[in-house]
Amino acid sequence: MRTSECRTGRGRSGGFTLIQLLVVIAIIAVLIALLLPAVQAAREAARRSQCVNNLKQVALAAHNYESTHQCFPLSCNAGCIGGSCTNNLGGAWGSWSPQAQMLNYMEQNALYQATNFSLLSQGDQSWGGSYGNVMPNSTVVKTRIASFLCPSSPLPQGNFANVSYGGVSFPVPGNNYFASVGSSWGFAGTWTNSPNGLFRYRGNPIAIRDVTDGTSNTVAFGEWRIGDGDNNRYSPQDIVNVGNGTNLGGGTGQDTASANMPFGGGTLATYVLACKTTWATTGNAPGGSQTVQRSTIGGYWAPGYFSHTLGNVLLPPNPPTPNCISCGGCGDNDGPGIFGLSSFHPGGANVAFGDGSVKFIKNSTNLQTMWAIGSRNGNDVVSADSY
How many domains does the chain have? Predict the structure, then answer.
């Protein structure tokens, strides 16, 4: 009797059948598939929010700098600090960036105090060379600053171009936020038609009083993708060198009325086409020379020139064409070109306007609007719903 009862009891205690188990697994898989995009979207929203906060912090630092010095960084004294320009600090190559000059307004005072601004921001005097292994500013220029990095962007790749200290190379620190020179090819205030943004080197200082379009209508800082450091593989944020003076005039003074957008008529389209053609024919070949293709954009935050810390507002974000430069044999990107907005955010990129507000610029924004928000003094009237 007991044996029968035990057998009967075991018979009544059933489990899942194979079909039921498969159904449950299928339901769980569907729920995960539905939930995963929501989780990813929430994470991207959080990263984008942090990116916005970073840009706002950078823009407010520029405001505080302007309030103290009555001019925006870089334009105040040709890229040097203390009123004394030595070691060619007034030139593009070796000048200190707006980002570097604003460090003490961004809770980076210790780094600011450790910087020797009387030496070049990049090159022999910072990274060795004539100073051997001393490298006076190496601790500063190699420091990775979280406020200059967008969380949606992969961390910077690659090492300093020509640097080793005791046989050890330094990883590039990275910079996702460029200071805008405006809707301009170049960044020097001594050329015929000076850059029309908030930042430039040389020329008269730029202050809020010079932003006649209004600080709320003028881009101060923009977002871009950092290069992957691989010159043998094309990425959308790569830089293509179309050669000295190509479609921009000649020499280094290409910031002229005939070339500077939006005054150049069809010049921009011609230049972009030349850039794209150059890459298609030579730049994307395996083992392509750095002379043609460069993957260095946003590598550093210290040097005050194009591709590292300065950019322009000529094209909408994430264009289908690469960044471009016109430079004959230059080892870095201290020449005129297109270094514009890009990001890993879907649909566009963030910018900080001169009043400290941060807004999202869509990929579909038209050229006239881009040129208008890039310029500080073009008498432009721009509606917020146009971008």
Answer: 1
